[in-house]
Write a structure and sequence with these properties.
Blueprint (H helix, E strand, L loop, with lengths): L2 H23 L15 H19 L8 H21 L5 H25 L1
Helix pairs in contact: 1-3, 2-3
Length: 119
């Protein structure tokens, strides 16, 4: 088996794991329920990655019989998806932009007044 074949085989195993977990848990990784945790998909995935790295650090790569490396790769793939989706979404809603614009105008007006007073 060539290295490329091995890459394809392991890659498919990770994909199969992600699909299996998505079928079991739904889109909870990318659309968190935020029942106990309150964060974005990126924040929550980073926390899961931290937890997985701590488990690997404490128990090695085969703690509790699960494939920690495969889990970690899966979380990193989900993180890549979440970051990409976050970049595609507008960061501010229209009303938030209006508030930011009003704040910036107010700040600029105050700064002009200060300059006039010092001249």
């Amino acid at each position: 088996m060539t290295t490329q074949d091995k890459i394809k085989k392991v890659g498919q195993e990770v994909i199969d794991l992600l699909i299996e977990k998505n079928e079991s848990y739904g889109d909870s990784a990318l659309e968190p329920a935020n029942v106990f945790a309150n964060g974005s998909a990126v924040d929550n995935l980073c926390a899961r990655i931290d937890d997985k790295l701590m488990r690997i650090k404490a128990q090695g790569f085969r703690g509790y019989g699960e494939d920690n490396i495969k889990d970690l790769i899966g979380y990193l793939i989900l993180l890549k998806i979440a970051v990409r989706e976050e970049e595609e979404e507008p960061h501010l809603t229209e009303w938030q932009e209006d508030i930011l614009d009003a704040f910036n105008q107010s700040t600029a007006s105050v700064e002009k007044d200060r300059k006039r007073q010092t001249i």
